[in-house]
Structure formats: C-alpha cells, structure tokens
Amino acid sequence: MTKSIIMFPCNCRMAVKLLCLCLLLTLLYPSWAKKHSCPTSASSCDQCLMSGPECAWCTAPNMNIRCHNMKGLRRMGCRKSHTYNPQGEVQIVRNITSSESEAKILFLQPQEVSLRLRPGVSQIFHLTLTMPADQPVPELTTDASNVPEAVNITFSNADARNPLLIQVNVVAAQCPSKSDDSNPSKTGPWSVSISPRGSSLSVKLEITLECQCDCTGNREENSRACSGHGALMCGQCECYNSYTGQQCQRNTGSLTSHSQHDDYCRSAPDALVCSGVGVCVEGFCECEMRENPEEMYSGRYCECSNFDCLRANNKICGGQGQCSCGKCICKEEWTGEDCSCSMETAPCMATNQQLCNGQGMCQCGQCKCDLPYSGPTCESCPFCENTCQQHVECVECRAFGMGEKKDRCDQICGYLGVTMVETKDDLPQQGGTVKLCKMRSQDDCFFYYSFSHTSSGGESTVARSKDCGTN
C-alpha cells in the first residue's frame, strides 16, 4: 500500500491536520484509548506483553503473579532489574549531511532509520528536507506495500516556522495473531521507502514489531533455579520428563506409594495435604475449583487464593485492589491493608489552600486535627486567639466594602457567608462553634461580628451599627 500526505506551511492547516491525526489514531486504536488491565493470570511473557502497552513481566523466580503494570510489580517485590517492559526504540542507521554545493539540489536527512515498535507505543523521528529556495514544498509518499495494515505512518510539520522539518510518527495497533497467515513475516522486519513525489531520493525505514519477549531466547538448561531438572525461561521452569513442581523439585518416577505422594503435597510435616483445598496427584497438588469461576486457589500447596483478603465496604480489597495470596495489591491511588485508604487530598484542602489548615494530617482522605482544632478541614477553633484576626479583613470587605481586601473580596473571601443585623445585641450568643469578635475597622471604629466554621467555609453575622466613640 502507498500512504501520502501533503505538508502545508500554513499554521491553521497544520492545526486542523494534527486534530485529524489525533481523531484518526483514536478511531484506529480504541483498545489503547482506554486503560488496560493486565492479566495477572498470564501464563507466558508473550501473552502478558501482547495484552497492552502498560503490561510488564517479572522474571524473578518464585513469583505468584508475574504480569502487571510496572508499579504493580514493584509493589509485589519484583526488582526493576527483573522486570521486562520494552517500549520500542528509534535507531538512526545512516545520516550523511549535505555540503554547501548540495544545498541547491533536493536532499533528505537521515537516509536510513530502524524502528522497533511495541504495539500501542508510537515512535517519532524527524526528517530534514533540503531543496532550492524557488522550488515548492513537495509531497511525501511512502511505499509500504509489504507492511501490515496494523502499522500506521503519518507526517506532520515539526516546526510551524520551518515546513522542511518533518515529524514522522509510526505506531502499530496490535501484534498479528498466530492464525494470521496473510504475511509470512509476522513481526518484520519490513522495509518502507519514504520519498518526495517525482524524486529518486528516498529514506529507508525498517520496521520490526516487538511481539515476543527477548527472554524467550535465553533458555537456561539444567538451571539451578529449576533444581537442575529443567530449563529456566523468563523466570519460569520448564521441567524435564519425570520432574514436576515450581522448581522441578519432584521426581515423579521415585514416588511409589500414595502416602509418599501426599508427603510431597504438604507444606510442613503436620500440614494438610494441599492445604485442605486440593488433591495430591503424583506428588503435585491439583487445587479445587470454586463455585465462582473468578475465585481460585493457587500455589505449590494450594496455599494461596485470590479471594481470601481483607474486605472494606463489603468488597475484597475495598474494590480498589487485587487479592494476591492473602494480601491486597492496591491500585496506585489507594493504600492500606484492605485498600480502603484513599490517597486523595482534595477533601482535606482548607479555604486557605493548605492541607487540614496546617493544623492536622490528611489520612485516607480525611483530616486528623491537632487539638484544639476540629472540623472536616481543621478550620474550626471557636476559642483560638487568632480566630477573629484571621477573618477580620474578609468580614470587613464583605459587610462594609472596606479594608485591605476590598478590591479582591470576591476572589479571596468567597468562602465567607455574611448576614447583617442592626446592633451587637442582635448577634448570636457565643458558645459551641460560635465566636464573638470586636475588631477595629479601616475608619477607626469598632465593629462586632460572630464567626463559625461551616462545611463550605464560614458564616459571619455582622452588626451594622459601629462603635466610633470608645476604645
């Protein structure tokens, strides 16, 4: 197939083109437009990586869950050095620069580029087009007849001021299925030619899809991690004949009696066979199936489950995490043993834009206030010495249109509700959450008001009558 796009130096046309490009990618790749959930039950590295661009594989031994996003694997104890999470790469293979004498003729740079693409992760590189000043900007075409439809190549101006600096964006929607025989080379490399229309010059682009884990080619025979009775590949043991177990530690040929089989299926001499939730078959535990197909036992002795974790709000791991061998693996924005503790801080933000008014700690999305402060954001302290002083400028500008904050009253003091009464005798009585205040105003008179904290900020009742004759 041949793909082409005309580059316009006009900024407005480029903006429209980029918008169309974004819409095109969204339509072509809806599976990447929404957040993927990595299959924690993936049986191989290839299956894990093909599930989504955010999925990573752990090659460390003795891991119950190997497929998760990077943060999930790190929370489960998988070191960064044991994680496999390719994101593709761009390699400039040939990049000959033009001389001054060549500036008068058409020239492309670089001349050869190699791309490794992980589906869902786009790769970008730039082309510089050198050409005579009196020649119009040519149209770029691509000859990609041997490349699968899942690979998309688009062009755009990298710099609106320089229409000859071209950004090339390459992305693959997905890996080809194993049953797809339309292309004998399912993952490449494929050669693509990019050239200005009517010119013999071209840029060679070689594309390879990353649809297989590199670790599958690193098979360690007779691995010590597999007790010397199997091959280690991508952190998992493939046991040789007559051996079984997670570390190939069981020799099924040496098991001659039912009782001996059972001994190999106990986590300790006095432990239940297969933890009481499975049967021992030739020294290997086969775990029971649950009525709910989403619930399952796992582990060498069926000692783990994905449902026997702490609950919150009547949900396993509070509905905000995954249960792994009795332990909750929480989502990024949640924490706690049952994943019920939100790391969201917005509910703790006080009207002064400080967490818990600087008078407490935000824990699980709620303020734990230091005495004598109280309230949802620790702003309630009716009898603190600075309560009246803290709000006097907002009270003055809201009630009388005076004071230091009068010009910014709506922006700064919007949190405060004001009710006017005639005299100080009409103010609410002090007590509970109500604090009575007597403060000097900008006109050198005293005015009186009450203040109390509310969920929306604060409420103040102000006496319209001031006292200008006494101190």
Task: Characterize the structure shown.
The protein has 471 residues and is mainly beta. It has six domains: 2-29 and 88-209, Immunoglobulin-like; 35-84, ligand-binding face of the semaphorins, domain 2 (2-Layer Sandwich), CATH 3.30.1680; 218-305, Tie2 ligand-binding domain fold (Beta Complex); 311-342, Laminin; 344-375, no CATH class; 387-463, Irregular (Hormone receptor fold), CATH 4.10.1240. It is 12% helix and 32% strand. The chain has seven helices and 33 strands. The chain has helices at residues 11-28, 30-33, 45-49, 70-75, 258-263, 387-400, 409-412; strands spanning 2-5, 55-58, 67-69, 83-84, 89-94, 107-109, 112-117, 123-130, 140-143, 151-159, 162-172, 190-196, 203-209, 230-233, 236-239, 243-244, 250-251, 278-281, 284-287, 297-298, 304-305, 311-312, 315-316, 321-324, 327-330, 334-335, 341-342, 360-363, 366-369, 416-421, 435-440, 446-454, 457-463. Strands 1-9-12-13-7-5 form a six-stranded mixed sheet, with no helix packed on it. Strands 6-8-11-10 form a four-stranded antiparallel sheet. Strands 30-33-32-31 form a four-stranded mixed sheet, with helices on one face. A hairpin with a 2-residue loop joins strand 32 and strand 33 (457-463). Residues 1-35 have low confidence and may be disordered.
List keywords for this structure.
single chain; about 475 residues; mainly beta; Immunoglobulin-like; ligand-binding face of the semaphorins, domain 2; Tie2 ligand-binding domain fold; four-stranded antiparallel β-sheet; 7 helices; 33 strands; flat; disordered N terminus; EGF-like domain; membrane
